[in-house]
Amino acid sequence: MTTQRQWIEVRATDETFVEEFNRVAYESGWTDGLPVIPPTEAKLKAFVAASGRPADEVAGEIAPRMVAATIEKVAANAIMAGCLPEYLPVLLAACAALSEPEFNLDGIQSTTNPAGVAVIGNGPVRREIGMNWGRNCLGPGNKANATIGRAVRLVLLNIGGGVPDTVDKAVHGYPGKYTFCFAENEE
């Protein structure tokens, strides 16, 4: 069976690559239903380099599968979500927090309630990467908020296994599962 990574590299030279990748991503369950950006080898290397950490370093284990969220795996999901490399430290911190037993990610991933994960940016990084903490901070229009929140969802799906209707048993779902990220207004 061809792995996601092998398939991406083989097809990256094709004109219809993005459309075909999105078809395969949707059919394979790698996406939240929205289009994704293919995580090519060159993009993965750039993201991992920007993190300043080894590709195989573990940021946390994501429930319910309890699979290691390596820097490279998190970076692949960040790319698919549309993140910029400088957003990766926030996403890695979120993965570490999600892995804490007190957070009960397994319960959140498998409940019938419409629970979702919110990421709240704090400290200087929120300004450095342009997160929104003001008007419309939960609405559209801010790349950092939108893509970091979405990347968390893709991590929960692709690494943790929070697949709708199999593990994720939410009765009606919750729109915050597409993206739910904003910064704290520290001022």
How is this fold's topology laid out?
Blueprint: H1 4-11, H2 17-28, H3 41-51, E1 58-62, E2 67-70, H4 71-81, H5 88-98, H6 105-110, E3 119-121, H7 125-128, H8 143-158, E4 181-183
Parallel strand pairs: 3-4
Antiparallel strand pairs: 1-2
Describe the structure.
By secondary structure, this protein is mainly alpha-helical. It contains eight helices and four strands, in the order αααββαααβααβ. The strands form two sheets. It has a two-stranded antiparallel sheet with strand order 1-2. A two-stranded parallel ribbon has the order 3-4. 40% of the residues are buried.
Short account of what is shown:
With about 190 residues, the chain is mainly alpha-helical. The protein has helices at about 5-10, 15-30, 40-50, 70-80, 90-100, 105-110, 125-130, 145-160; strands at about 60, 65-70, 120, 180-185. α4 (about 70-80) crosses α5 (about 90-100).
Number of E-state strands: 4
Form type: globular
End-to-end Cα distance, whole Å, is 52 Å
If strands are numbered along the chain, what order do they take across the biggest sheet? 1-2
Q: Roughly what fraction of the amino acids lie in strands?
A: 5-15%
Strand-pairing-aware structural class: mainly alpha
N to C succession of SSEs: HHHEEHHHEHHE
**Rg estimate, integer Å:** 16 Å
Helices, by number, come to 8
Percent helix, as a range, is 40-55%
Mean pLDDT: 92
Largest sheet: 2 strands, antiparallel
* Low-pLDDT ranges: none
Key traits:
187 residues, mainly alpha, two-stranded antiparallel ribbon, two-stranded parallel ribbon, globular
